[in-house]
Specification:
The strands form 2 sheets. A 3-stranded antiparallel sheet has the order 1-2-3, with no helix packed on it. It has 3 domains: 155 residues, no CATH class; 93 residues, no CATH class; 119 residues, no CATH class. The protein is mostly helical.
């Protein structure tokens, strides 16, 4: 069992993730060479006719490598800290894992699609795809290098590492909040960090001046808007961070955050909206023993924050739904009255009065929820808990 756990831990080392990125780059380069070999005659004709650069000077072929700087920083960290640097920390490993995923999805797979194309004329790379692959490759190298340097700085400074406090809220940048409120999704203009570099994807936020790597995601066409509307208000000396509006999880990597949003949109098993399910009574007993016996104040605080978060998520649609229900109810009432009058039967005024009173009571309850949602939800939770406790007592009494 210990050998299995040791192997699992080594699979999650940062050094192995970097090695996987290097191997994926090599696979991409080999696949690209197959593409060039397949249309060798066409390429030589283009070189002779139009004076294009040969394969040795191809910028795409040069970009399909991890780079010497990353190998140097890995060697420096290995000499200074040994296996501790190779193992890495969770922050660096999360960033590099996201870059490994991007290398697979945005670099290797498009090249393999072209290398396996049966028609040789379709294997010539268009300029848009070349630009996207070179931009992704440069971004992967830059992000990996920055993550390894930051990990080396963290490990060289000795300090007591504490677990972070539970994150119950996030503070978005005011520019991000303004984009979130724009229901028409109008385009917005920002400046690039390097305007003359076509392969640099970083842009500057007009409010906080943080550099945001606008990574392209094949499953999210609106990736740029998602990144800008989800970046947090940065602290002094902090890089760009992104947060999910559903689970408040923060991400240091733009592509890692986009993949998190993509998994949530398609409803996969990795989605943050999936709830825990207990397939056996033993797991249910472990859950009860682990969480029910916690501090009452902590549980109430977490419950209050969770309820307020869910209410904030629904609050944007509550007024619209309320107005639609009002219009739909009164229009339905008028249609029903007119239909009964056409048939020749007189409507029962007592029944309509009861329905109107119930409707007014419901609207009053909705206004109460809108004014103070937390207290109303807490009262509902208390009543449900009391009913559950009474039901549990009756069940145990019946069993006894």
């Amino acid at each position: 069992m210990s050998n299995t756990s040791d192997a699992w831990e080594k699979d999650n080392w940062t050094a192995f993730a970097v090695w996987d990125i290097d191997r994926t780059f090599q696979q991409s380069y080999d696949a690209y060479k197959q593409v060039v070999k397949k249309n060798k005659k066409i390429r030589h004709r283009l070189v002779e006719c139009f004076g294009l650069r040969p394969t040795e000077d191809d910028e795409l072929a040069k970009s399909l490598t991890l780079g010497r700087k990353i190998h140097d920083i890995m060697e420096t960290g290995r000499n200074a800290l040994g296996s501790r640097f190779e193992k890495g920390d969770s922050t660096c490993h999360a960033i590099i894992s996201a870059q490994l995923l991007r290398t697979h999805q945005e670099i290797l797979i498009p090249i393999l699609d072209y290398s396996l194309a049966p028609n040789p004329s379709k294997t010539i790379f268009p300029d848009t795809l070349k630009t996207a692959i070179i931009t992704a490759a440069k971004s992967v190298r830059r992000t990996t290098l920055h993550a390894l340097r930051a990990q080396l700085d963290r490990m060289r400074t000795w300090h007591l590492s504490l677990l972070p406090l539970p994150r119950l809220s996030v503070t978005f940048c005011p520019y991000a909040a303004a984009i979130q409120k724009d229901s028409r999704k109008r385009p917005f203009v920002t400046k690039k960090v390097k305007p003359h570099d076509r392969y640099d994807e970083r842009e500057i936020c007009p409010h906080c001046y943080i550099h945001i790597a606008v990574s392209a995601h094949s499953g999210l066409p609106d990736a740029r808007r998602i990144l800008f509307q989800s970046h947090l208000q940065p602290q002094l000396g902090q890089d760009a961070k992104f947060a999910c509006e559903s689970c408040y999880k923060e991400f240091d990597s733009s592509y890692g955050f986009l993949d998190h949003v993509f998994q949530r949109e398609i409803g996969s098993e990795r989605s943050c909206l999936k709830r825990w399910t207990f397939s056996s009574p033993d797991l249910h007993q472990v859950y009860r023993s682990s969480y029910v016996g916690s501090e009452k104040t902590v549980v109430e605080a977490c419950l209050k924050k969770c309820l307020s978060r869910e209410v904030r998520r629904m609050k944007t649609l509550s007024k619209m739904e309320l107005e639609d229900e009002k219009k739909g109810y009164y229009s339905l009432s008028s249609k029903a009255l007119s239909s009964r009058t056409l048939v020749g039967s007189v409507p029962e005024e007592k029944d309509w009065d009861i329905e109107i009173q119930e409707r007014e009571r419901y609207l009053k309850q909705r206004r109460r929820v809108e004014r103070d949602p937390t207290s109303f939800l807490f009262s509902s939770v208390r009543s449900s808990v009391r009913s559950g406790i009474h039901g549990l007592g009756r069940e145990s009494y019946s069993r006894g």
